[in-house]
Amino acid sequence: MSDKLKRIKRWEQERVPDAMQARLDRMPDAMGVHRQTVEHSFETFKSWMGMSLHVLAYNMKRVIAIIAVGALLRAIRA
């Protein structure tokens, strides 16, 4: 009878989500505060600008994917 080994694989950065969860466990209201402060601003911008904010973000993402960040920054500075 051969002995079977059980292998456990962990993600190299497993400590990152574990640390985040520990912080959230210590401060359970942190996400509520985040929603009230940060997400409110984005919701306001979105309502002011309508879909144009989404379109701008989509276009910026596409440009970055196509020509890379360095070229995009050079084009903005020009």
Task: Note down, in words, how this protein is organized.
There is one protein chain. The chain is mainly alpha-helical and 78 residues long. It has one domain (15-77). It has three helices and no strands. The model has no long low-confidence stretch (mean pLDDT 79).
Name the descriptors.
single chain, 78 residues, mainly alpha, 3 helices, 74% helix
Q: What oligomeric arrangement do these chains adopt? A: single chain
| Broad shape | flat
Helicity range of the residues?
over 70%
> How would you characterize the largest beta sheet?
none
- Uncertain regions: pLDDT < 50 for 5+ in a row? none
Strand content: under 5%
Please count the helical segments: 3
Q: How many strand units?
A: 0
Mean pLDDT, rounded to whole units?
A: 79
* Series of secondary-structure elements, N-terminal to C-terminal: HHH
Structure classification: mainly alpha
Distance between the termini: 72 Å
Report Rg. 22 Å
Tally of domains:
1
Secondary structure layout plus pairing:
Blueprint: H1 15-26, H2 30-49, H3 52-77
Short description:
With 78 residues, the protein is mainly α. The chain has helices at 15-26, 30-49, 52-77.
